[in-house]
Amino acid sequence: MSSYLDLGGCRKRRRGGEKVFKFKTFGENGCPVEFDGSFRDNVKALVEYGHLEVNLCGNGVFSWSFQLEVHRHPPLHVVLFIVEEQIQASSSSSINLHCKHCQYVGWGHHMMCNKKYHFLLPSKDTVAAYFNCDETSFDDPNPEKGKFNLVELNGHIMHGVFHSNGFGHLLCVNGMEMGSDQLAGYQIMEFWDRLCTGLQARKASLNDSSKKRGMELRLLYGVAYGHPWFGRWGYKFGRGCYGINQPIYQKAIEAIQGIPLCLLNHHLSISNNDISVIFSRYQALSDHSMVTLGDLFHFMLELRSRLPKENSIDSCNPATVETNCRWSPKRVEAATRVIVEALKNAEFRWVSRQEVRDAARAYIGDTGLLDFVLKSLGNHIVGNYLVRRCLNPVTKVLEYCLEDISTVFPNSEALIINNSKAKPRCKITKVQLMKDIAYLYKHILKDQKPTLSTGVFSAIPMATRIILDTKFLVKEYTEELSMKGNSNCSNGKTFKLLCTVISRSDEIDEELKKPLPPYECVCLKENATFDELKQEVEKNFREVYWRLRSFVVETIVNLSVKGLDLVMGSVEMGQKLVFIGSNEDQIGMDDGGGSGIVDCLCGAKEDDGERLISCDICEVWQHTRCVRIPNNEEIPHVFLCKQCEEKIVFLSSLP
Question: Which residues, if any, are the signal sequence (predicted)?
Fold first, then answer.
């Protein structure tokens, strides 16, 4: 699938005077508009600069397009579409209007908004699925092309959606490896992040299902960096599936990152020598000792980012024994060989520094020379051996060992003393590096052997499962709008308050205890009265939420004031206020967006997007995985939960 949209061949698409914006700066303040209002105000200001499209997503749905130039030579353009979807246009549909993405990420208590905005970067394939570009233009009123809705098509380069309260979801990112006419994933994410920041979105969520060569990136990057790939843009743990919470996720990351490489190598080398070879190959490349599994994956991914696409680097160009010292190179080489022989003849694989030093003193009387060589020898190639040095995590003593790398670098040479004179013996290409990463991922993280099912390694399968079950990530942009400067205020309004509302019926019903809607930033003039404040609150919340379109403010919680009293002086700037009011539109469609009662064995109490099954007696939902129904099996026609099954057995045993 191509990751760009070239409209140059579409004759009717060409419109004289249509402005072209820079892709790399679009969304920044001033590009194309000054973003100085609320999220809704900023979207309204942005679309003023777009080209109004007709019948793009059906009658009554407004949409705008922006031509974006990725680079000029060679020419590459993409088109951003912003589609405004109003709830009135969708209310006739039989489908549940509640946002399932909000439900999955933990925002299911939010009321349904009046509008949502789709941000689309379509690919050639999605445009081709919508209409024939050679025969039809976007402005063609022919209703035949309306049989497909551009928003509902799959395969976009990017598709994000925001509700009018500023909470949104990144639904897809389809980036490609960087090429002459393609957008890479990081470019798309930077574009999305600029949009969210500029528009002053509140929170954005995503479902991390990103993969590369069959590897789940949330697992690979979690081990290497302690956060998923999307963490580069500030996305963090939002909500875990199967009852996983933030502390459990963090412990899983730390457990799998901290697996000692020396122990892992010892256990795996018994049945799989290839892993030991890979360990040695990258230890030889590193200029410092890699102690844990996290160190190894971090080094390999960092190395990948530095490697040219086609070129390679010398994998036998390690740090060398320093020769700029008071001993001659011949004496340094002799002492090095003695130490290597001492390690070869040692009873155990890992030998303490003192033991190596004592063994070498039988042949080298100069202890200063021995100390110098031992200090310089960490992770050096000597002949067919790699001299490894690391700190024992238990005894806190430096230890040395030898690794035979003749299978890694078969054309080995003599002792490397001077870096400038060393000749490369092996090349590491980006292709080889990715193969090695995939091999370690498969045999250590995914397909664990029985040798990794005991002791400290038993944590690997469990930690892997926890990390893979953590899919929903969230970035907080402006959860509570800034109280500094004149941001979010216009027309001379400089006094800001954070306000939310509660219906009188909800307040009376103590058992209901609904969460409050997110606070909205309300801007007032300095001489505004409480009557004017109430009007502003009514206007804001009617504009945002479907259920509150006839909401009328009555009182303010814990504040006894008169309508003509001045707001300034009675409350502090930035103070949070809760308004109680009445609402004629008590619409049932705005309640009960969930799928019933969820009470699973894993501890989950809400729908998290995983497959569920309902008990035919108590109608409580549980995960199919938790009740041992494999995902590749169909859901049985009749299902009883464990509790109901036990009750039936108990009742049948009664006389």
Answer: none
